[in-house]
Amino acid sequence: MPSVAAPARTPGGRPSGGLLPPRRSAVILRIDNLVKHYGQVRAVDGLSLEIGEGEVLGLVGESGSGKSTVGKCVLRLTDPTAGTIELAGRDITRLSRRAMRPLRRDMHMVFQDPFSSLNPRFTIEQIVGEPLLRHKVTDRRGVSERVPAMLEKVGLRPEMRSRFPHELSGGQRQRVGLARALILEPKLVVADEPVSALDVSVQASVLNLITDLQRDMGFSCLFITHDLSVVEFLADRIAVMYLGKIVESGPKAEIFAAPRHPYTQALLSAAPVADPVRQRERRRIVLGADVPSPVDPPPGCRFHTRCPLAYDACRTDEPPLTDARGNGHPAACHLITADRIPDAAAHR
Ligand code: SF4
Q: Domain ABC transporter spans what residues (predicted)?
């Protein structure tokens, strides 16, 4: 399966969008043919991707697409069934818990629910400073010196260090989660729906904060979300997942301007647009049927039970993820392989 490769980088270190001649940044995360089955459930079924240094990859899909399982496998919170995961060139797929321990300094998770991910009996200073002690970076005195600066960095007042999680709002708790994830300056952050449990009114401010922190600190990020509009301003590249597989990936601007896969076209047609004129012009694609069960995914193209463009071959043959135009924007659809341009909106 072709890999969703990290693109070339500009001299300033930001991604070029994969359209410039190859000048590869260091790859921080490489996933090759990852499979994770929970018994009969084929949560992830052969997924490959790369994230370059300082790059944000938005991994997008509906509930049940397997995107959170990818994040858990990357952090080795669950063991992959097959495939390989490399962090900064080191194969971590089958490392023991003990061997993983020092590497956990380089990779951190930001969870969806900031309340349940913070220990209610600990103060904010204990929560944010705990990774420093666990990895023996400093002692308690050092924690007291470093935590206030980290709190300020995430937009919290240093005095909040003595508070407990229940005394904070949802947005403040997520800022604490970010402070804890970033205090060791990890190479890779896996953010799993970090704003979806927050009020809409605070989502934008937390997203802006993540964007600023990422630019400032330069960490790579696997940003997992069901909502394409969330990654519009944050991600460098986007990979769209459906039933355990990537169906399309590419530079963010390309995905938003010219989505190729009918599933991506449908997701985009449902995403809110700030500009009312563009919103009116948008042709909404309503997908029929529910997402099939990952226990028994449909044969051929997994999307064929919902695709408005499906034809005979789609029901029997699985389309490969193909970069038909060689511009770092692969998609898995027979129409693209046949050099046609899918337009799901035209077949409503
Ligand atoms: Fe639709 Fe067929 Fe393309 Fe799958 S391969 S997305 S069913 S047209």
A: 29-268
Burial of 262 per CB tally in 10 Å (0-12, 13-18, 19+): buried
Give me ligand 1 centre to Cα 56, in Å. Answer: 28
Mean pLDDT of 44-65: 95
Region(s) of the chain under CATH 3.40.50.300: 27-247
Cβ atoms of 181 and 108 closer than 8 Å: yes
Residues in the chain: 348
**Which residue minimizes the CA distance to atom 6 of ligand 1?**
333
What SS3 class is residue 230?
A: helix
Per-residue pLDDT tens over the stretch 149-195: 999 999 999 999 999 999 999 999 999 999 999 999 999 999 999 99
The architecture that CATH gives domain 27-247 is 3-Layer(aba) Sandwich (3.40)
Is any atom of ligand 1 closer than 6 Å to the C-beta of 302? no
Question: The tokens of 126 are what?
Answer: 């204990």
Cα-to-centroid distance, 347 and ligand 1 (Å): 13
Q: Which of 301, 311, 315 to mutate to test the pocket of ligand 1 (most atoms within 8 A of CB)?
A: 301
| Mutational test site, ligand 1, from 309, 315, 321, 337, max ligand atoms within 8 Å of CB | 309
SS (H, E, C) 7-66: CEECCCCCECCCCCCCCECCEEEEEEEEEEEECCEEEEEEEEEEEECCCEEEEECCCCCC
Alpha carbons 148 and 158: distance in angstroms, whole number:
5
At 247-271, the pLDDT tens digits run: 999 999 999 999 999 999 999 987 7
| 307 CB near ligand 1 (under 6 Å) | yes
Which residue blocks in 218-341 are alpha helix, DSSP H? 252-257, 262-270, 276-281, 334-337
Model pTM?
Answer: 0.89
